[in-house]
Amino acid sequence: MTQLKYKDTVYTVPDGSSVLDTLLDNGEDIPNSCRAGACQTCLMQATHGKVPAAAQNGLKDTHKAKNFFLACSCVPQDDMEVCLPDVEKLKFAATVTEKNKLSDNVIELKLKTDEPLKYYAGQFVTLWRDDVLGRNYSLASLPHVDDELIFHIRLIENGQFTGWVADELKVGDRLHVQEPVGDCFYTQGNPEQSIQLIGTGTGLAPLFGILRDALQSGHTGEIHLFHGGLDASGLYLHDMLTHLAEHNSNFYYHPCVVHANEGMASNIIEADLLEIVSQTVSSPAGWKSYLCGDPEIVKKLRKQIFMAGSSMNDIYSDPFVYS
Ligand SMILES: Cc1cc2nc3c(=O)[nH]c(=O)nc-3n(C[C@H](O)[C@H](O)[C@H](O)COP(=O)(O)OP(=O)(O)OC[C@H]3O[C@@H](n4cnc5c(N)ncnc54)[C@H](O)[C@@H]3O)c2cc1C
Ligand code: FES
């Protein structure tokens, strides 16, 4: 069994256990969220000992060089000494400038950072309520167009972070934003390539950012956005997206729901999201695909689009993984 030193205490790591589980089981307060290597909330730094490669998947090269690693994915092979990184260098102080309701359970949050934040629309950041509670949210704003960072936050029953956003956070309050990560964003250089953007719920947030970026950049290829909801109330940007599709000849909006409501807009289809995608874009080879939101649906879509002929290199995804 390996030994793990943290803040002057040495713990024994049970066989197969991660650094995160070992420290949490011993009562240490280590930030975490997805516990699946997706969100980077559990970022730690090794001061001694070898970091297993799997614990650095998805980290920036600059972070790898500093021996940063994801505590939830790190099963030590050798003795290690670890600490929390100097997060103050990674975090940006921000002020809440607007909090708007987009639907019964989706809040649009606008934040202004004290220092400018470099990002691409569609990447995600960690929003920190305090030193321990942080959660990922995707950027729906465009850095060169919007003065503020814009997020779409779905309220989760008994959610620690979203409950705080709904009940306590108000305009003027301060919080911290950790630097953006992820490769779900629009890249220039191939303006004629067809694009499909597919998401459920607030998976729309990064897709909306990517869509706006593509349109602003003068993308000429077809752009298809598929947004799935349980019913029409989940299609929280329906009117705006319908309007955009009416005014941009290369943009197609496909809103679809599991359950139809009486009197719902005529362009909303009651159908399975995966079926609508495969019927509309039956040969996605050469297309770029962006998939965001519910982790199970993202996983199924990745497989479906790959099996239909797309290269994995053309599929970008941000599953909203939670523990
Ligand atoms: C890369 C990435 C990007 C993300 N971007 C966004 C975004 O733009 N907008 C957004 O609204 N969310 C986004 N999320 C999800 C977000 O990070 C949180 O997981 C979510 O807001 C719940 O946080 P919470 O603290 O309120 O709930 P918690 O206190 O963590 O969880 C409370 C309970 O709800 C369950 N739960 C947590 N999340 C969900 C969920 N999504 N669906 C169903 N049950 C859940 C938990 O298992 C737990 O039982 C993203 C996640 C990832 C990994
Ligand atoms: S990456 Fe470790 S908790 Fe999410």
Topology overview:
Elements lengths: L1 E5 L2 E5 L5 H7 L17 E6 L12 H5 L2 E3 L9 E4 L7 E13 L2 E8 L10 E5 L5 E5 L10 E6 L5 H8 L6 E8 L13 E6 L3 H13 L6 E7 L8 H10 L3 E7 L11 E2 L2 H8 L7 E6 L1 H13 L7 E5 L4
Parallel strand pairs: 1-5, 12-13, 12-16, 13-14, 14-15, 16-17
Antiparallel strand pairs: 1-2, 3-4, 3-5, 6-7, 6-11, 7-10, 8-9, 8-11
Structural commentary:
- The structure is a single chain.
- This protein is α/β, with parallel strands linked by helices and 323 residues long.
- It contains 7 helices and 17 strands.
- The strands form 3 sheets. Strands 9-8-11-6-7-10 form a 6-stranded antiparallel β-sheet.
- The longest helix is centred in the middle third of the chain and has 13 residues, at 204-216.
- It starts with a strand and ends with a strand.
- The relative contact order is 0.11.
- Bound molecules: flavin-adenine dinucleotide and FE2/S2 (inorganic) cluster.
- Flavin-adenine dinucleotide binds next to strand 9, strand 10 and helix 3.
